[in-house]
Structure formats: C-alpha cells, structure tokens
Amino acid sequence: MLRKRGQKGFTLIELLIVIAIIGILAAIAIPMYKSQTIKAKLTEVTNAMSNVASAVAAHYQESGTGTFVSAGDIATIQGSLGVSVPAARIATMDIVAGLITATVQGIDSSVNGTTLTLTAATDANGAITWGWGGSIPANYVPKQ
C-alpha cells in the first residue's frame, strides 16, 4: 500500500505575505537609517564647534576685556585658539563677536552647504551660555 506524502514547503500566498512584510519594514527602516547616519556624521561637526566654543569662552574669561575673539577662517582658528577643525566635514568656519558659524560639507546632499551656528550669550555675572542654530534642517540641530 502506498501512502501519500504530505507536501512540504510554503504556498505562494505565504511567500508573498513574507515579501510584503519585508518591503514594509524596509520602507520604514531605510529613511531612519539615513537620518541616523547623517546625525552621526554631524557629531564630528558639533564636537569641533563645542571645542572651539570652549576655547572662545576661555579666551573671553582670561582676557578680561569683555569681548570675544574673532577669527575669519579655519587656519586662524587653529593657530590662535589651538583647536583642531576637521576639514573633511567643515568647509568654512568663522568666529565673529561670540557667533561661531560652520558650513557643513561631505555629509549628505540634504545638509551639505548649510550652516550650523553656536551663539554665545553672557549674563550680568559674565557666565556664558551657548545656543545652537543655523540654516541646517531643524531635526539635525543639536539639543540645547
């Protein structure tokens, strides 16, 4: 007597459902991945700007003049403040009256050419606080 073996494998409908699920997950994950990759690359820019801000604040406190140092380009910033600026991610950087402005490059077409700013504000006691801004899309501006 011959027995009929049970079929093994998946039906076409089951395979199509799995492919549809994978497609939906990919549609959600890829934009999130791109956004997080841009934020990770921007970290290099924000870290460099924070280091420059620390040097500017130190100069402000030590000089006793009540004015912020100014520098018109990356070479001047590196020479006068002794802070390294990554040229791979920052096209230009300048400091004018407590406003540090960096132009972003080499990250993604959605942020390349935009600016990120770090603005100094002083209170009556001479304490300095910094605020982020610029023309970069709002979802990439660091938290205050």
Plain-language structure description:
The protein contains 2 helices and 4 strands, in the order ααββββ. With 144 residues, it is an alpha+beta fold. The protein has helices at 12-63, 74-81, and strands at residues 90-96, 99-104, 115-122, 128-134. The protein is 42% helix and 19% strand.
Helices and strands, with pairings:
Layout lengths: L11 H52 L10 H8 L8 E7 L2 E6 L10 E8 L5 E7 L10
Question: Quick recap of the structure?
Answer:
This protein is of the alpha+beta class. The chain has two helices and four strands. 42% of the residues lie in helices and 19% in strands.
Major sheet description: 4 strands, antiparallel
Largest sheet strand order:
1-2-3-4
Query: Which assembly state applies to the chains in this document?
Result: single chain
Number of separate strands: 4
Order of helices and strands: HHEEEE
Computed Rg: 26 Å
- Overall average pLDDT: 91
Number of helical stretches of at least 4 residues: 2
- Which percent band covers the strand fraction? 15-25%
Name the descriptors.
144 residues; four-stranded antiparallel β-sheet; 4 strands; alpha+beta
